[in-house]
Amino acid sequence: MINAGRIWDTWGVTALLLLLLLCTPVIAPGFLDIENLQSVLRESAYVGIVAVGMTFAIASGAFDLSVGGQLALTSVVTLMAFNGGGTAAAVAAAITTGLLCGLVNAGLITQLRVPPFVATLGSLFVFRGIAYLLTQDGPKTLPYEQIEAPFAKIGSLDVAGLPVPFLIMVAVFGAGWVLLRRTAIGRRTLAYGSSPSAARFCGISDTTIRVFVFGLVGLTVGIAALTYITRVWTADGSAQDGFELKVIAAVVLGGTALKGGKGTLIGTFSAVFLVSVLNEVLVSRGVESAYQRIVLGCVLIVALTVDGLRTRFAAPGSFRRASRPTS
Amino acid sequence: MIGAIKKAPLLAPLVLVMVVLAVSTDTFLTRGNLENVLVAAAILAVPGIAMTFCLAMGEFDLSIGSTVSLAGVACCSALIAGQPPAFSLLLALGVGALIGLANGVVITKLGVTPFIATLATMVIVRGASLAYTDGHDQIVSSPGLKYLVAGRPLGVPMPIVLAVVVTALAWWTINRTRFGRWVCAIGSNRDAARMSGLPVDRIRIAVYVLVGLSGGLWGLLISSQLQKGNGQLGLGFELDAITVVVLGGTALLGGRASIVGTVLGAVMIETIRNGLNLLNTPPAYQRISVGLLLIAALALLALRRRERRGAPRVLESAA
Amino acid sequence: MRTKKIASVALLGILALSACSDSGEPAADQKITVGFSVYDMQYEFFQKMAKGTQDAAAAKGWEVKLHDEKSDENEMVTGASALIDQGVDLLIISPFKPTALGPIIAKAKAENVPVIVNDIGGGGTPYDAIVISDNAGGGKLAAEFMDKQIQANGSASKNVASITCEPSATYAARRNAGFKEEIEARGYTVVAELSGNSKAEEGYKVMKDILAKNPDVAGVFSCNDPMGVAAANAIKDAGKSPVTDVVSVGFNADPEALTAIKGDLLAATVAQDPAAMGGLTVTLGEQALNKQPIQFSNAAEREVFNPVTLVDKTNVASIG
């Protein structure tokens, strides 16, 4: 039986994105220039990569407010490692630092029993603070002399016309999709998200889920930091202020419910590009940044209103949708 | 009131921090400095208290920082246009209430998740403030507006008077009125609250209007201090307001609100900020200490609750 | 998995389509196009800088493509690179994060586009020239003025304070460094050096804390005018005069500072001239395009200083 609501959950944002793309030749001539498309794909990658981890977190019923702090700290440490030990050291440092940040969050939540919201709000301050401490003498940078280093190329190289950061993002989404849909831990994450207590009765441990989910967020931040830092070549404590809101907005816009139990990576993927394409269209139309904000805000509300109204009218009499995975 | 203080886990750490500062600096305990800390805490406590209602309901409002900016701009523009101070102040509060109403309606009637709805209004309202001012300061020199921070009825600084009144009203509302019980009931179980016939939507709208109003008042206090309004004021304030509530223990209690906790949270944040400034500490340490404090205070409370109940249980703070 | 494939196939399809449509390149235009990537158009300072740049370019019959970085390093790199992709002949950039100039300059070099940096900093990259206000010199001017004004006030105290921008603004920090060097040479002590993170709200609170700790402080220098005027407001709210009790000096000569100076709410500010800086970048850009030598103020860093002036009550009427 066809369930229109279910299709909308997964494909609604994708449909909006395709609609917007179909309109671009008229509303934003020049948008479809190859360089411009590459630029859009490239610039969205770091948001998209972390959005994969965040989709898991939100599907498990928690979200991670500390990703901005994690990105700043990981980027700073990565640059320090690169300047000290080259590409291999930088990649290792990025992955390790990101993962460690995630495990710190998981530890706070499972060992100190602080709710995820508070734990990650606190660690947001702490991670950013450490990044500030490490950059008190000025931002860490990728020196211009290293322009030919393979590491510096990650952010700018294209393979078959597709930017490397975008390819990395696609790979992360692919791996995330397999994890969420085809493995036991993915299904457990969703089960835990729809009802932690029921999941506990089924033998799913809090600790496993928290470590998995927050570790995964940290890991994606580590990968994202590699694409981010090789694009902007610099980082300090203030890097990407407000990043957490960007990422969470993309995940929720994509159709993953904040109350947990439901996660759609396809939606997240499309939402990341919906936001960046819209932004690009507004910029190319010469819309001032103040009005860009207003339009983006309205689009967020409209997109979520459609979903909210559908939920309301699709399920008269029941106040809460049964949680179920969608693919 | 005594019961509420017992519930406030922040009191002991706050006293500890104050003792440390009293010993390590020779100026912390001066009258001028304490007044400084309390005035700053009072200004932070007012929106914190409104936000407490929101978190007690299991939701939060990200748009308050932008409300601060737009309310300040509204008041200052009205003053510049020659409107009397009373009208300009009311206009700012009205702007705040309207933003709150918009949040409430979008959330309850259109079914948009609070996180996204208030994130969207945060962006829209900031955009409106920037678009209206076009990047220019709205500079005023208004004794009427200045009275909000510089006035001293009965010798007490006006922000403290405001905060005391707001605290008392909020404490009474939460603990002694139907509305307060309803807010907490929605926070513990919204579906149950709806099924038992509570006007859930109207209560939620009312809470968002309250938060909006407090954002308007916050904007007035900031513009009163700075004698200007512009599109850049209030950036990141939403996090400050939520932090004091969380620090006060409301998020962890879930379905219960600790007004006293929020006030102590505001005093704590401002004491630490002031103390680190008195000690000439670089700003990086301020962030770290606020973060560690948040985690430590909440971990302590969580551990204490666990001991009391015997059962390990992680409470979710629903978004 | 199929669903993901469809999504990426769709994107690839669009890429392919656009690759075809890209073939008809228009004939090379003789008109020179300048790309100007600006820090953040929300600030009056950068609005004036953009105006100065556009006016100077228009006078030469050039076209200007404006890009707003919106205070975001990712947007800065993306947008400035896009300007180069669009084939500008010259790139002028006022960088939000100077240290993020590297990838932009690398791309410009590859396309043979000269880069003139306007203000903020060069981030140690091989730009062609940078126009910069003499930040340290401005800090020194502020110290000179403060010393004179403190003596005129007849204050016995030799304690002054300094409020800095956010820790990452290393170039703006030169203002506080220049101020500190000069004021200490004149026998004063900087008793407090605290950050207001460039924000008015924080500048106000920091000044309150400074006054509580050092009630005898005789002067305060702030790294920008929003904090300078906010600090002056804090001084006034504490019942003191920001001119005759605690000499308050800001930096930038924003309209709010000029208004404050006229109303005795601020003692002085250091004026930068963003419009003139914009004009200067266009002149330097033309020289770079024609491969003419540029006269540097500091050849080692390829810096061209735009002079700063001290604005106090005596000359405020002649500014802005």
Features:
heterotrimer; B: ABC transporter involved in vitamin B12 uptake, BtuC; two-stranded antiparallel ribbon; 15 helices; C: 320 residues; alpha/beta; Rossmann fold; 6-stranded parallel beta sheet; 12 strands; elongated; disordered N terminus
Secondary-structure topology with pairs:
The complex is a heterotrimer of chains A (327), B (319) and C (320).
Chain A lengths: L3 H24 L6 H26 L7 H44 L5 H19 L5 E2 L8 H4 L4 E2 L2 E2 H19 L1 H11 L1 H6 L4 H27 L1 E2 L7 H11 L11 H20 L4 H26 L13
Antiparallel strand pairs in A: 1-4, 2-3
Helix pairs in contact in A: 1-11, 1-12, 2-6, 2-7, 2-9, 2-10, 2-11, 3-4, 3-9, 6-7, 6-9, 7-9, 10-11
Chain B lengths: L1 H6 L3 H14 L6 H26 L7 H17 L4 H24 L5 H20 L4 E2 L3 H8 L7 H19 L1 H11 L1 H6 L4 H27 L1 E2 L7 H11 L2 H4 L5 H20 L4 H27 L10
Antiparallel strand pairs in B: 1-2
Chain C lengths: L1 H20 L11 E6 L5 H16 L3 E6 L4 H13 L4 E4 L7 H10 L4 E4 L10 E5 L1 H19 L5 E6 L8 H13 L3 E7 L4 H14 L5 E4 L2 H13 L9 E3 L5 H8 L5 E4 L2 H16 L13 E4 L2 E4 L8
Parallel strand pairs in C: 1-2, 1-3, 3-4, 4-5, 5-11, 6-7, 6-8, 8-9
Antiparallel strand pairs in C: 10-12
Report a brief summary of the structure.
The complex is a heterotrimer of chains A (327), B (319) and C (320). Chain A has 327 residues and is an all-alpha fold.
Estimated radius of gyration of chain C? 23 Å
Can you tell me the CATH architecture of chain A? Orthogonal Bundle
Total count of strands of chain C: 12
Number of domains of chain A: 1
CATH superfamily of the largest domain in chain C: Response regulator
Sheet-strand content of chain C, in percent, reads: 15-25%
What sort of overall outline of chain A do the alpha carbons produce when their principal axes are compared?
A: globular
What is the count of DSSP helices of chain A, taking H or I runs of 4+ residues?
12
Number of helices of chain C: 10
Structural class of chain C: alpha/beta
Q: Considering residues with a beta carbon less than 8 A from a beta carbon on another chain, report the largest interface and each chain's count.
A: A-B, 60 and 59 residues
Helix content range of chain A: over 70%
Number of strands of chain A: 4
Q: What proportion of the residues of chain A form beta strands (DSSP E)?
A: under 5%
